[in-house]
Amino acid sequence: MSLLRAVLGSRNLTIGLVVLLLAAGMAVVSEFWTPWPPYAMRIRDKLQGPSLAHWFGTDNFGRDIFSMIMAGARNSLEVALTAVAVGMGLGVPLGALAAARGGWIDGFVMRLSDLAFAFPALLTAVIVTAIFGPSATNAMIAIGIFNIPVFARVTRGAAMGLWKRDYVLAARCAGLGDAAITWRHILPNINHVLIVQATIQFALAVVAEAGLSYVGLGAQPPQASWGKMLSDSQTYIYGAPHLAIFPGLAITITVLGLNLLGDGLRDLLDPRVRRRR
Amino acid sequence: MSAPLLELDGLTVALGTGGVELLSGLSLVLERGERLGLVGESGSGKSLTALAIMGLLPEQMRVSGGLRFKGDDLPALPEERMRRLRGRRIAMIFQEPMTALNPVMSIGAQIAEGRRLHLGEGRAEAEAVARRLLDRVGLPGPRFDPGLYPHQLSGGQRQRVMIAMAVACGPDLLIADEPTTALDVTVQAQILDLLDEIVEETGAALLLITHDLGVVSETADRIAVMYAGRILETGPTEKVFARMAHPYAHGLFAASPYGLDLRRAPGEPRPRLKAIPGMVPDPARRPAHCVFAERCASVQADCLRISPPLKPLEAEGGRWPHLVACLHPRAGGAAP
């Protein structure tokens, strides 16, 4: 219960969690129910403004924008979640290894990540999708690859300082090896850094997915995607601004919520703040 | 006679291939149940000696000479076997209890860690032992729950946790590197008493590293005075305190309020503390003659020619002779 109180006690965390739960809830519900079928075109109803029937209005094909945003939420979160999972799954072990062993292993891992960093994120994604073809799956892989060096660096940087700490020396004196020290002493001490980084990368991945879909390298029609909706709305921006406003707001609010969540988690996960009695 | 618990036989630690000697020919023997105080000022190589025994010296340092634990040559042991000794047979207590505990791990889990690793106990079993150990080191429940985190404890309480961690697996040798330096004076005495009791109970050997003469006089059976990587004087604590044959040992005593008080007749006014002039020589520029000659008040011509070996002061000696590395040891009486 003290955890619940801690969550409610932090405004950032509350807002962030509510936004994330809303987005995730929309994504899940969209699997079973949307106000209108998100992919059904009704040309007769095209470009309507918001109304009771169509809460966010309709697009140039008469599709219900609210329904599309619900379906798009699923796409955005799925891509972002996978991308972060790929980045953490490979980046954290690499960074931890570099910090634990140092020497040429450290150099090798870091130069490799420099190489990956040398290409702008979008370019990496364009290369991947150009090789494997544009699709939501390849967008996940592309964004995930970009995330690997980010997590490798953050993990290494945070872990390096800890390896010089007395309690790591004490752990060595207790007979622990490098792997056990990393698992039991290093990672628990940097997990707050990683979780905060994960929420930031999650937010960036949502934007990256929107960007890739915007240029046509992400989700393919008719699959709904916030970025794709934005790019489709350009032609109608003066006549029907709601086509751009609602997906734009969806992206903005989700990213803002994730950032607030990251801030709130950072405060919550620091034991020096949490367990004071 | 079986091999001694810990035997340093001319232990030398040098830096890299350049061969700058940080420790030069240390010889010590430590048996179970004994308390040996290793005294010296900063930079004399006390902590380095501890790390050498633990096998945790930085990679650039080369160890030569004998360093045996129960007859095993430690520097020759593979890392795998060394790891099984650390924490299990040889345990260490650190100077800084504020930083030597993992801030995000409960103290119970940290105490239990060694038992789970070395004795293969399960979590519940090891944490029950942790509970008992906390009681033993003077942190009784329910006030001191194993689920507490280090930041919820004071410095003295954390040092008690460190002691519980160190003795968790029942080690044969306990190395305490300045265990009381970071603590309040009132707490220091309690921690020393606790260490003393624990050694008494478990029969472990204690290697107490400190610069505080009060600490050694209370705790150690024997002391070894270190300077510039060498032992200059060693012997039973009372004998060393009574004579202070090496001018450095005497200087160290005269420079400490404790050493001075010990020698002061009742009613006498308190004399000023005497600092030893000069500084510990740079390891790269240690002289070939007596390392203390440059700072010694009673230096003579032959001190600048040879480096004196440790020699017994008295003919009979006993089990632990009083040894001193000085050509002109001071006569009895330690009045400054």
Molecular structure report:
The complex is a heterodimer of chains A (277) and B (336). Chain A is mostly helical and 277 residues long. Chain A has helices at 2-9, 11-32, 65-101, 103-118, 121-132, 136-163, 166-173, 178-214, 226-233, 242-269, 271-274. In chain A, 75% of the residues lie in helices and 0% in strands. The longest helix of chain A has 37 residues, at 65-101. Chain B has a domain at 235-265 and 274-336. Chain B contains ten helices and twelve strands. In chain B, the strands form two sheets. Chain B has an eight-stranded mixed beta sheet, with helices on both faces. In chain B, strands 2-1-4-5 form a four-stranded antiparallel beta sheet, covered by helices on one side. In chain B, helix 3 runs parallel beside helix 5 (155-167) and helix 5 packs parallel to helix 6. Chain B is globular and about 65 Å long. The mean pLDDT of chain B is 85. The interface between A and B is medium-sized, with 22 and 28 residues.
Number of strands of chain A: 0
Alpha-carbon Rg of chain B, integer: 21 Å
The low-pLDDT segments of chain B are none
Give a quick account of the main beta sheet of chain B: strands, pairing sense, barrel closure: 8 strands, mixed
Biggest interface, and residues per chain? A-B, 22 and 28 residues
Q: Give the fraction of residues assigned to helices of chain B.
A: 25-40%
What is the β-strand count of chain B? 12
Beta-strand percent range of chain A: under 5%
What is the element string of chain B, with H for helices and E for strands? EEEHEEHEHHHEHEHEEHHHEE
The percent range for helix content of chain A is over 70%
Query: How many helices of chain A in DSSP terms?
Result: 11
Structural class of chain A: mainly alpha
Distance separating the two termini of chain A: 15 Å
Distance between the termini of chain B: 42 Å
List low-pLDDT spans of chain A: none
User: In percent terms, what proportion of residues of chain B is strand?
Assistant: 15-25%
Quaternary = heterodimer
CATH superfamily placement of chain A: MetI-like
